[in-house]
Design brief:
567 residues; mainly alpha; 62% helix
């Protein structure tokens, strides 16, 4: 299998048509496979993350000719979906039809309305990560090493495409972030060589050869970005119209962005009021800033950070099981690892879960970003303070139990159709994980110790301000500097992590999804428990996760048994 554009006939797992399906459902089943194969041609790395390893080692062809051809075919597939008569389909298939329509429009938005391949250097760096092949033993090491070799073989072409498409002036924030990530590629490739050396030594010579070529291409790409930096601008924003369109094509949200902003401010004020109540109840009463500063001093050392995270994984697992809050599908196991070097410029902590198509690799990998050796003492202290023990517990709830890891175990075990297994809403996945932080406090995690709720509220304020910064920077013309100040003032953050958060919002406006998703899930929970007064939280959580990861704009109709309709 060569690197480059995935072939149209590239294999995807078969999801059987249910017995007794109508002719319309059987016809839709064939169209569904065509659409999914087409989606993977544009994003083969996403197929690998989902556990479809026939795409291992394949990189996307992002040249203008290839993406224009892809978009033209996507438009034809969208026309075919639009012409499918909904009422001839079963309800499950009607839901899938709406999901596929939304997903195609989402990718076409990126290519035609953003257009991100001409502005965002990160688009050419993400596909070169080798973590999907080293993190989990889904196949023998030689197979995974060969996939890594194919990625590195394709790296020069992909990066060359980037230098050709990324014409200036580029947004300054995009360039700086891409520089930090691109400069991490060479260490990432070298670090990954250790996996080949230790576990697939027969592939070491081939890996070393292509690594040298890939590193040279990465160095050239870095130099291209450095040349672009002096002429870079502050023009990164989507603008109000495209921001509204983003809400629709990503999450099926018809709510005006101004209403979303109002909901964000209202939730921020609720969380700030609760924080103030806790501070006033202290003996003696103190300010919220004083209480947050106090818990920030209770942080692990740089050497203790990952061991502490591992301890909290098991602590939370036992709590979730004891409280019977949700079914935890088995088998399950999660280990803690440092965030790969290539991702440290933009992520604090993350979950690398097993994909829904994985057949043998169920293990999750919880990545925590460590202190960097070259940071000065003040930066190191600020970073560790942001990972204080109460906050680290809260982050672990978000990422592992009962957050992302448990969610993806359900996704793997129960998602019924091909479409549901390949549709991943950012607001649903992040909203669920953020919702579980509040759930832990509601259920008594920490035994009423104020520091646990303080940590949950601290992270809730962070997510509130992410929403407000996203709207502000992309729809209201807010600067990165002003967004940084917003994080400092409203979320009580130190300047260094606040600036990282503001910069993240320039290229990832969808980090509004944490708060948006949480609010939608809470709304859905209230409605479900009102209609089902004998139901338990476990009933609600299991039902919610049985939907897969749908756009949050679809949650109400799905819970009520109605058909969702995309914009």
């Amino acid at each position: 299998m060569s690197s480059g554009l995935a072939a149209p006939e590239q294999g995807i797992p078969t999801v059987p048509v249910p017995a007794g399906s109508s002719e319309a459902d059987r016809s839709f089943h064939a169209l569904e496979r065509e659409v999914v194969q087409h989606l993977f041609r544009y994003s083969p790395g996403f197929a690998v993350v989902l556990g479809i390893h026939s795409y291992d080692g394949i990189l996307p062809d992002l040249t203008p000719a290839a993406t224009a051809a892809w978009a033209k075919s996507a438009e034809k597939l969208l026309e075919r979906l639009n012409s499918t008569e909904p009422q001839a389909l079963s309800r499950e298939r009607r839901v899938d039809r709406e999901l596929l329509r939304l997903r195609l429009r989402s990718d076409l938005f990126d290519l035609q309305e953003y257009p991100y391949l001409d502005r965002l250097p990160l688009a050419y760096l993400g596909p070169l990560e080798l973590v999907p092949y080293t993190a989990r033993p889904y196949a023998p090491p030689p197979h995974r090493a060969q996939a890594m070799i194919r990625v590195l073989e394709g790296a020069p072409k992909l990066l060359r495409t980037g230098t050709e498409r990324l014409k200036g002036p580029l947004p300054e924030a995009f360039v700086k972030l891409a520089l930090a990530m691109a400069e991490g590629l060479v260490p990432h490739f070298q670090e990954s060589e250790g996996f080949v050396r230790d576990q697939a030594p027969q592939e070491l010579a081939a890996y070393a050869r292509v690594r040298i070529e890939a590193e040279a291409a990465a160095t050239t790409f870095v130099e291209h970005l450095k040349l672009a930096l002096p002429g870079a601008t502050g023009d990164f924003a989507l603008g109000p119209a495209r921001f509204q369109r983003l809400l629709g094509v990503r999450e099926g949200i018809k709510l005006p962005w101004t209403d979303l902003e109002r909901e964000g401010w209202a939730d921020l004020r609720r969380n700030q009021a609760r924080l103030a109540d806790i501070a006033r109840s202290a003996h003696p009463p103190v300010s919220p800033e004083t209480m947050l500063a106090a818990i920030s001093r209770d942080h692990p050392s740089a050497e203790q950070l990952l061991p502490e995270a591992s301890r909290f994984v098991e602590e939370l697992r036992q709590f979730v099981i004891h409280k019977d809050l949700i079914t935890v599908p088995t088998p399950e196991h999660c280990r803690v690892e440092p965030t790969p070097q290539v991702d440290r410029a933009w992520t604090t902590a993350s979950m690398d879960p097993p994909g829904p198509f994985e057949t043998s690799a169920y293990e999750g990998v919880y990545h925590v970003t460590p202190v960097e050796e070259d940071w000065d003492a003040e930066k190191k202290e600020q970073w560790l303070a942001s990972f204080n023990r109460p906050v680290l517990r809260n982050v672990t709830a978000h990422e592992v139990y009962p957050g992302h890891y448990v969610q993806f175990l359900h996704f793997r075990a129960h998602t019924p159709t091909l479409t549901r297994r390949v549709f991943l809403s950012g607001a649903f996945t992040e909203g669920w994980a953020h919702y579980t932080e509040q759930l832990m406090i509601e259920q008594g995690y920490g035994g009423g110790e104020p520091s646990f709720e303080l940590a949950e509220l601290s992270d809730a304020l962070l997510r509130n301000v992410r929403l407000l910064a996203s709207v502000g920077m992309h729809a209201r013309g807010m600067s990165v500097r002003s967004a940084t100040d917003l994080f400092v003032k409203e979320a009580h953050m130190d300047p260094f992590p606040a600036e990282r958060e503001a910069v993240r919002g320039t290229f990832n406006p969808e980090y509004f999804g944490y708060t948006l998703g949480k609010l939608e899930i809470l709304r859905a929970r209230r409605a479900y428990l009102e209609q089902n007064p004998r139901a338990t939280l476990r009933n609600f959580h299991d039902l919610l996760l049985s939907f897969g990861a749908p756009p949050v704009g679809f949650l109400g109709p799905l819970l009520l048994g109605r058909d969702p309709v995309s914009t």
